Amino acid sequence: MVLTKRIIPCLDLKDGRVVKGTNFLNLRDAGDPVELAQRYNEQGADEVVFLDITASKEQRGTIIEVVSRAADQLFLPLTVGGGIRTLEDMQQLLRAGADKVSINTSAVQDPTLISRGAERFGTQCIVVAMDVRRNFEERLGTTGIELPDGRTCWYEVVIYGGSRPTGIDAVTWAKNAEERGAGEILLTSMETDGTKAGFDIAITSAISERVGIPVIASGGVGTLDHFYDGFVAGRADACLAASVFHYGEFTVRQVKEHLAARGIPVRL
């Protein structure tokens, strides 16, 4: 059986509104989260992701009301992340109507949260989100990855919305997350986020090749072919995008028709 590839609109939330930035900075308003999610539902999105992007920095919980409002109106899986630090946080969101929870900063700080969450709620509910950036300093124990321009780097995991480096190698961390019970990896490259220059194929393919769980490519879509590249060159199981959907450059349907025409199995 051929598994269909998923297209996932991502809604970054701040103060209950959808925002979008470039390289994690310069956020601008993009609308009401439930209205946007409803639009993507109608366009045939496979899932929707809500990320409360400043929750970890501001030390507060994710917006439960937005989640329950969305869950009441949507008929597609909903993944929610941002500020989730405990199993109780996870339970609150799943009760509010989320299908999966995404953990990032808290998983790096306490990796047992992955295994405890998987044990209590099932691996299918636990998404480990990874924000990564290129690091050109030589370091033992890191995975050397060749970039399109011929340079070699390793990718470092960053936390708190990209503001704090960890020294952790991204490939090692992805494998660790899988071993601890993560059901999926949501991978965002800071270098490509919001640039519309395409996904960071180098790290996407490196992680996709080394883990057995689905990898969601995120950060950098600007053209229809970027989705194709994410699936073929990046070997991703799903492609996530934000601004091209929020500002009406493409519909989810257009993306899927383009992919189907190029031989990618999608749910139309």
UniProtKB/TrEMBL annotation:
UniProt cross-references to SUPFAM superfamilies, sorted A to Z: Ribulose-phoshate binding barrel (SSF51366)
Transmembrane segment boundaries: none
Catalysed reactions, as listed in the record: 5-[(5-phospho-1-deoxy-D-ribulos-1-ylimino)methylamino]-1-(5-phospho-beta-D-ribosyl)imidazole-4-carboxamide + L-glutamine = D-erythro-1-(imidazol-4-yl)glycerol 3-phosphate + 5-amino-1-(5-phospho-beta-D-ribosyl)imidazole-4-carboxamide + L-glutamate + H(+)
Keywords recorded for this protein, A-Z: Amino-acid biosynthesis, Cytoplasm, Histidine biosynthesis, Lyase
Pathway, per record: Amino-acid biosynthesis; L-histidine biosynthesis; L-histidine from 5-phospho-alpha-D-ribose 1-diphosphate: step 5/9
CDD domains for the chain: HisF (cd04731)
UniProt-listed Enzyme Commission number(s): 4.3.2.10
Pfam families: His_biosynth (PF00977)
InterPro entries xrefs: Aldolase_TIM (IPR013785), His_biosynth (IPR006062), HisF (IPR004651), IGPS_HisA/HisF (IPR050064), RibuloseP-bd_barrel (IPR011060)
Localisation: Cytoplasm
Active site per database record: D12, D131
A GO molecular-function descriptor: lyase activity
Reported function: IGPS catalyzes the conversion of PRFAR and glutamine to IGP, AICAR and glutamate. The HisF subunit catalyzes the cyclization activity that produces IGP and AICAR from PRFAR using the ammonia provided by the HisH subunit.
Subunit structure, interactors included: Heterodimer of HisH and HisF.
Protein family per UniProt: Belongs to the HisA/HisF family.
Name of the featured protein: Imidazole glycerol phosphate synthase subunit HisF
Species for this entry: Methanoculleus frigidifontis
Gene encoding the protein: hisF
